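Q: what does this look like with zinc ion bound?
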Amino acid sequence: MSFNELRKDYLLDRWVVIATERGRRPTDFARQPRRETKTSVCPMCPGNEHMTPPAVLVYLKSGSGIKRDKDTNDHRRKNWLIRVIPNLYPAFSPPKTKISRKQIVKNKNLSLAVGHHEVLVESPDHGGHPANTSIPQLIHVINAYVDRLRELSAKPYVQYVSIFRNHGLEAGASLSHAHSQIIATPTVPKTVAEEMVASKAYWKKNRTCAFCDIVEQEHDGPRFILENSKFTAFAPYASINPMEFWIFPKKHETSLLQMETSEVKSLAETMKTCLNRLKTLVNDPPYNYGFHLSLNREAADYYHWHLEVYPKLAVWAGFEKSTGVYINTMTPETAAENLRRKNTAP
Ligand SMILES: [Zn+2]
Ligand SMILES: [Zn+2]
Ligand SMILES: [Zn+2]
């Protein structure tokens, strides 16, 4: 008799049933028809800058380099390469006056959603998604992530900055123009907090970084996808999504703020290759991605930033919602085997 496997995440107390028996293949998902977001007038396209609040950051071409600027109330910058604007319907909003920790955290069950919620328009090209955009443009995107992370994380009421991307209607992107979102929060969100606690305990016990050890362990195993001199990509052992993959810097770094110029280029190349392979294999599926990082100086020894990519190919229903245990119908080994193939590279 053979069974599926119940696997636990490397660090989180999170379990997933992996369908090792009769697991599915990427082609099983590729046949699903994709829904397109309805497009009327796109507020993110060049020429429509007046439809959004003033940009807090724009990248403008300047000779062979980039000039950073921002909009004013009555003047919107044109000919931009990157544009970061406040979200019209923010989940977290900045305080109008100085606010203390005590005023934000009311009690253990209540805090005020003080922070920032921004939209990063990744390209003047409506369809300039990471899977098919140019490497120089993707470098601008990553540099803009870092710029916003630096500015937002310096604010006294900000404890965490989440940088994420929704791709496709089913993954929550109500507009199809290539964009990411940035949310700065007054507390460290649950998943990252749990990774921090677990990696701290691991460090105390082993005096090594749990994530460095995971990368080392996955680097020549069945879940390995690709590597270059700076980054490694692999499908995590207890993936909760079919085709899920994670990207780690090889150098031990706590947040994106520590990246060197050469690493930014390398990250752009790694992201483009992996996302393009996903797009090719599964017919441009909806997906979400999010960076995990730490802004806590104490975490420098044990926390290691990374990017997690979650393709949206399954529906989480009664079992997942009522138990917190997931069912993944594709093994991460199958996902990696397919994402590893070079013939699907751009
Ligand atoms: Zn557009
Ligand atoms: Zn590390
Ligand atoms: Zn993580």
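The radius of gyration is 20 Å. The helical segments are 26-30, 101-104, 135-153, 190-206, 210-218, 261-282, 318-323, 332-340.
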